[in-house]
């Protein structure tokens, strides 16, 4: 309450009249989308695209970010602990010597990029938002042997029942597929 009074005094002293009004979510698209976390968190790669990745760079050993109902592989790591998962969180597991499939929430991507840079024996196929200005994106691009960008609508399905603000945030979005090969016993610079 003390802070609120300070704000009102500041506004009053500056001659600013503040009017507060309710805006329904369906009319408050941008602000609502920003307050609800990332709509990229619950995307799922379409079956045909998954089979293409598996054919090109598989077989993959572990789905690093999955839930029992969304796992593409028998071996998977979950964000939260669950009985079917090999462990949670994915970054606490050993990635060395594996070929991982990674479709992580965007908040995890800086640490995923760091892990792959520091563990050259870990191979991975990553599906990430096309955000080239992000440091993690540049880090992945520097160690990847392949990068391909596609329209999100062509390769992934959002969960049903997304609010209009999240649907709006995903419209026109792009995804990038990175292939980071593993180099057992060496560094990525040696390859």
Characteristics of this structure?
single chain; 191 residues; alpha/beta; Rossmann fold; five-stranded mixed β-sheet; two-stranded antiparallel sheet; 31% helix
Describe the model.
By secondary structure, this protein is α/β, with parallel strands linked by helices. The protein has a single domain, classed as Rossmann fold, CATH 3.40.50. Helix content is 31%, strand content 16%. The protein contains 7 helices and 7 strands, in the order ααβαββαβαβαβαβ. The chain has helices at residues 2-13, 29-35, 47-57, 109-118, 135-143, 152-155, 164-170, and strands spanning 44-45, 62-63, 99-102, 123-129, 146-151, 156-157, 174-180. The strands form 2 sheets. A 5-stranded mixed sheet has the order 2-3-4-7-5. A two-stranded antiparallel ribbon has the order 1-6. α4 (109-118) links the parallel β3 and β4. The N and C termini lie far apart (61 Å).
């Amino acid at each position: 309450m003390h802070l609120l009074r300070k704000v009102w005094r500041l506004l009053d002293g500056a001659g600013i009249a503040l009017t507060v009004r309710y805006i329904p979510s369906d009319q408050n698209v941008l602000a609502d989308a920003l307050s609800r976390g990332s709509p990229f968190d619950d995307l799922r790669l379409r079956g045909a695209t998954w089979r293409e990745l598996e054919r090109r760079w598989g077989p993959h050993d572990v789905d690093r970010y999955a839930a029992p109902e969304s796992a593409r592989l028998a071996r998977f790591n979950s964000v939260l602990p669950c009985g079917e998962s090999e462990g949670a969180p994915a970054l606490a597991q050993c990635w060395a010597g594996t070929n991982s499939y990674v479709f992580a929430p965007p908040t995890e991507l800086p640490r995923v990029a760091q892990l792959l840079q520091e563990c050259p024996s870990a191979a991975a196929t990553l599906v990430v938002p096309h955000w080239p200005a992000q440091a993690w994106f540049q880090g992945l691009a520097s160690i990847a042997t392949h990068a391909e960008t596609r329209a999100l609508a062509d390769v992934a399905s959002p969960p049903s029942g997304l609010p209009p603000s999240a649907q709006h945030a995903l419209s026109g979005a792009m995804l990038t597929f990175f292939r980071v090969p593993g180099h057992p016993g060496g560094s990525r610079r040696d390859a």
